[in-house]
Amino acid sequence: MLTKEEINNLIHKAQTVRKYAFAFKSGHGFGACVLTVDGNYYEGVNVEGVISSMGVCAEMAAVDHAATHGKYAHKALCVADKNITYPCGACLQYLTQFSQVNDMDFEIVATDMDGKYEIKKLSELLPKKYRSVTFDDKLKSFNL
Ligand SMILES: [Zn+2]
């Protein structure tokens, strides 16, 4: 369960970085922020590519940003958009592999730019997720 302070921090950080989205094609920026189990925040924005398959979502960028700092176990992720928007299916599956690191069904905060938000569990958004059996032990080895 997230505290009010954690929710406010996640929302503020995701909203703040949204303006840095590299969305030169769509003009549609997203900001994201992940909260690690040890209380650190890492932001990300969507980055579009000149070749359609080269882009990355803000949620993946935030999780990758945390990995760059050696943080793999997450408590929550927030995504900020003009309207309340949840992560895409690819991001939900990407987040699932990180949820396997510490077996935490982390919370997803979806906020608009006015601060209105909703919170859902990852398992609610992707109830039939693919959970790797083959790599489960290896994923757990990143629970530092
Ligand atoms: Zn996505």
Plain-language structure description:
The chain has five helices and five strands; from the N terminus they run H-E-E-H-E-H-E-E-H-H. The protein is α+β, with helices and mostly antiparallel strands and 144 residues long. It has one domain: Cytidine Deaminase, domain 2 (3-Layer(aba) Sandwich). Strands 2-1-3-4-5 form a five-stranded mixed beta sheet, with helices on both faces. Strand 1 and strand 2 form a beta hairpin. It is globular and about 40 Å long. Bound molecules: zinc ion. Zinc ion is lined by residues 57, 59, 87-88, 90-91. Zinc ion binds next to helix 3.
Task: Give me a quick take on this structure.
With 144 residues, the chain is α+β, with helices and mostly antiparallel strands. The protein is built from five helices and five strands.
Strand and helix map with partners:
Blueprint: H1 4-17, E1 31-36, E2 41-45, H2 58-68, E3 74-80, H3 89-102, E4 107-111, E5 117-121, H4 122-125, H5 136-140
Parallel strand pairs: 3-4
Antiparallel strand pairs: 1-2, 1-3, 4-5
The protein binds zinc ion.
Zinc ion binds next to helix 3.
Gyration radius, rounded? 14 Å
Number of strands: 5
Category from helices, strands and their pairing: alpha+beta
CATH architecture: 3-Layer(aba) Sandwich
General form:
globular
The helix tally amounts to: 5
Oligomer kind: single chain
Proportion of helical residues: 25-40%
Task: Determine and state the CATH class.
Answer: Alpha Beta
CATH superfamily assignment?
Cytidine Deaminase, domain 2
Let me know the largest β-sheet: 5 strands, mixed
The CATH topology comes to Cytidine Deaminase, domain 2
- The end-to-end span amounts to 21 Å
Bound ligands = zinc ion
What share of the residues does DSSP label as strand, in percent?
Answer: 15-25%
Low-pLDDT sequence parts? none
